[in-house]
Amino acid sequence: MTSAQDLPTHKTPTSLRMPTRRGLLAFAFGAAWAGPGAAAAEPAVGEDGLYHEPWFLQSFLDLREDLESASAGGKRLAIMWELRGCPYCRETHLVNFADAGIATYIRDNFEVLQLNLIGSRKVTDFDRQELPEKDLARKYGIRFTPTFQFFPPTADGIEAKEAMAREVARAPGYLKPAHFLAMFRFVRERAYERGSFRDFLAANG
Asked: How far is CA 74 from the centre of its chain?
């Protein structure tokens, strides 16, 4: 498993606007016409206080099922752990995901499941253990938000591994947009099989 923990961070914006339903509808229409790198509208804030991207995975919270479904669609599974009031979670949504080029790459190649670090929804882990989100986070050693977990391309044999060994990569903390996109490319291209994320960054500028 590789980690992106020590990469540079980005300053949090000081002014944020609440999205409107009309604005989100306009985004749904306009995003199809946006070119690479174009800014997208802000996502909606749910009752849980988290920002929700309309393209995030709608899941029954069964991780093996989600991984198998992603694999069947030619995609990879990633989990994004968030927390209400987390400034860098907000930054990830309002800066990184707002870049149409980044969002398009992730939508095309990944299923992203959003989980709450202190949430109470029951999640069925790969080993069939059912746990509230907060206990699953503890099981996987998730301590920072946002944290992204990336899993293998198939579920074969994953339940037999220790929890921390099930990931192929992890990004704990906020990554600037270029490094953020690079992390998803690192996983999609299976570069973790050849070296570390830092090696990948060095080789790809």
From this structure: 17
